[in-house]
Specification:
The protein is mostly helical and 209 residues long. Among the domains are: 73 residues; 59 residues. Helices cover 73% and strands 0% of the residues. Helix 5 runs parallel beside helix 7 and helix 6 packs antiparallel against helix 7. The mean pLDDT is 79.
Length: 209
């Protein structure tokens, strides 16, 4: 007896034609999208590589005497802002400006680096910016920056800088407490200067001596 559940080749062909008629467009579209996505990814990777190479070349010239550093900084910020080189250039320019007592330009560049999407560089910039703002008397802005979420590795340094702000405001009791907390959270690493600040405050809760 012939199994009537078995389909002939003609029937299978007809079913395949019907399925393709119903689904062929979506299948082709899926293939096209997959291929387009592959080429799109390759183009994106090439763009990222080109950006990194272009930014790297500019960054290597940033502190050369014969170059226009301001122009390079502007180009990096406008055309290569997504790269780490733009943020690193801002940090480098800020350091040079601070050493030359060009405080306003130093702060401007540190603010640029602090707002970048490069997390590690941005954190370093925030610390340096807060320290510079404290030295220029912009205590509330410095405190606002230090209140941003920072990695645990910066806990001692952030607390120390908050102590500096309190000291500048003549709130010696809170400054003393902040320095003590900074020492405790430091793990005993590089705290000689911090200990000097704390020792200078003495133990009188009402004075800085």
């Amino acid at each position: 007896m012939v199994d009537t559940t078995l389909k002939s080749d003609e029937e299978k062909a007809e079913e395949l034609k019907a399925w393709w008629k119903a689904n062929g467009t979506s299948v082709v579209a899926g293939i096209v999208l997959a291929i387009g996505g592959m080429f799109g990814w390759q183009q994106w990777q090439k763009h990222q590589l080109d950006q990194a190479e272009g930014a790297s070349k500019l960054f290597s010239q940033i502190n050369k005497p014969e170059t226009d550093s301001i122009k390079i900084l502007k180009t990096l910020n406008e055309d290569y802002s997504s790269t780490a080189y733009a943020s690193l250039a801002a940090l480098s320019a800020a350091k040079a400006a601070c050493e030359a007592n060009k405080t306003d330009f130093c702060i401007e560049q540190l603010r640029t680096a602090a707002k970048s999407g490069q997390n590690n560089i941005a954190d370093i910039a925030k610390i340096r910016l807060a320290r510079t703002l404290i030295t220029t008397g912009k205590l509330d802005e410095a405190n606002s920056i230090l209140n941003d979420k920072m990695p645990d590795a910066y806990e001692s340094l952030v607390t120390e800088l908050k102590g500096d702000i309190l000291y500048a405001k003549k709130d010696y009791a809170k400054a003393r407490k902040a320095y003590d907390e900074a020492i405790l959270s430091s793990g005993g690493q590089n705290i000689e200067a911090l200990k000097l600040k704390r020792d200078d405050l003495g133990d009188n809760p009402k004075t800085g001596a």
